[in-house]
Amino acid sequence: MVAASCCVQESTGSRDVRVPVDRATGRVSQGRAVGFTLDLVDTRKEIREFLTSRRARITPEQAGLRSYGSRRVPGLRREEVAVLAGVSVPYYTRLERGDMSGVSQGVLEALARALELDEAECAHLFDLARAAQPTVARPRRRQAKQRVRPEVQWTLDAITGAAAFVGNERLDILAANQLGRALFSELYAAPARPVNNARFVFLDPRAEAFYGDWERVAGECVAILRWAAGRDPYDRNLSDLVGELATHSEAFRTRWAAHDVRFHNTGVKEFHHPVVGELSLS
User: Which CATH homologous superfamily contains domain 43-132?
Assistant: First the structure.
């Protein structure tokens, strides 16, 4: 059976990857304190592992370079990334070690091109760069409980021909119409509220049967959470969720270590619903 679903995402920020830059210096602005301060990682370590993992996936041939000598590790060497980005080897080495203080927008854009970053990865790189700028440390905060306005719920309930729901970047389902609740009945069976898709995917044994392509869904969940963490490092609720998943799920820990990031966009998902059977929803 093929059907359609509708998701409205509530977000604390835009997906526009443009960043504020000081016009006098060309450096990444420090005005927006965005970074990565989850208990599981620190900013310098995150920068180091993200850049290392991105260059490891690109071969010299893919980058248009001649390969020479034996390679102890896969992918590009540091000096090759430096050449592609138009910076010195010592400067790139400094960046990859996690020291991005004072880095300019132009250098970040050159790095993104050299490492062939996609839009989500590019945005993540800029978020990490902002986190590396000297600034007054902000305590992590627990957000007030998100509530959906009555008119939003009325809009959802008016959609009768498709499953519709409102979600956020932590993969909470904040509200849904009747078909939405029926579609995600397996998630709503758990007592915890709000319903959270990542918690279901990694901690509920029914998830692998519910999602027709569990491996892909699991990877997307982790990539979305990592991107969200880069966008808002002071979200205590997100930090707690990541800590819970990492503590109880080896599958989550393995995927988290891959440093993949992804926007929370629409797509096609395959479900094996316990009542209606096979579903393909977009």
Answer: lambda repressor-like DNA-binding domains (1.10.260.40)
Architecture of domain 2-13+142-281: 2-Layer Sandwich (3.30)
Q: 3-state secondary structure string, 200-214?
A: HHHHCCCHHHHECCH
The pTM for the full model equals 0.74
Report the C-alpha gap between 166 and 205 in whole angstroms: 24
Residue 29 per-residue DSSP state: P
Measured distance CA(81)–CA(123) in Å, rounded? 19
| Other CB atoms within 10 Å distance of the CB of residue 62 | 11
For residue 178, the one-letter residue type is: Q
Domain ranges of the chain: 2-13+142-281, 43-132
pLDDT category, 143, cuts 50, 70, 90? low
